[in-house]
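Contributing new complexes? Match this layout with 2-phosphoglycolic acid.
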Amino acid sequence: MRHPVVMGNWKLNGSKEMVSGLIKGLDAALNGVEGVDVAIAPPVMYLDLAEQLLSKANSKANSKANSKANSKANSKANSKIILGSQNVDLHNNGAFTGDISPAMLKEFGASHIIIGHSERREYHNESDEFVAKKFAFLKENGLTPVLCIGESEAQNEAGETVAVCARQIDAVINTQGVEALNGAIIAYEPIWAIGTGKAATADDAQRIHAAIRAHIAEKSEEVAKNVVIQYGGSVKPENAAAYFAQPDIDGALVGGAALDAESFAAIAKAAAEAKN
Ligand code: PGA
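Output block (do not edit by hand):
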């Protein structure tokens, strides 16, 4: 059984006040939601603050779970919020001005690291090969890669969607073997759907997710069966349940709607309800 994962990509948004308000809001809004892994990726600048706030929230959730379990009452407790990040460098130290290492991310409790987001591929010229190297380096450092893949509007119109996704995944499989995908997360994000409000239909997304899984299954059915594939691109509380009702959509990578505690929690809740 694949466990659903809903992750918030905060992108270049935040301030101390916003991070603290959003995490407190999420902690409250996720009350009683379980059966879904919920992760947030604030800008690295705020990882320290986020870690401190999350450790407070998570320890409160744990003690609540313990006391409820002890009293044998309704044992629902908050899902623990996992900390993530939006990028990583290919080195753990050295003369690499401006970069952030896996070791640093780990020190601040970040475990789920987004790589290959289309905004980095486009604005920072990150190639499939470069992203695959980041994937390998994260695994080597015991972190969970959240590998973003997806086609542009032109590629979509040209019917190249599955080929583009396969190529992006093959950059990992061909250098590290299909087993490298074990424990990793793939986020299928059609570029034309990101931040546009023009989300893929649930049926179309399911078709692509199934094709991605089938592509991986050509190398290993076992890996294909177990790998979590999220959908991303204009996921909102209004459309989330339709995605999660699809058999091959295991969660979501959420941008805009992750900046609002109620909206993000509603999406996490929809995943928990659909998948349990
Ligand atoms: P969006 O962004 O939800 O705002 O479309 C998704 C993403 O870029 O991960």
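Reviewers usually confirm one structural detail per submission. For this one: The chain has a mean pLDDT of 93.
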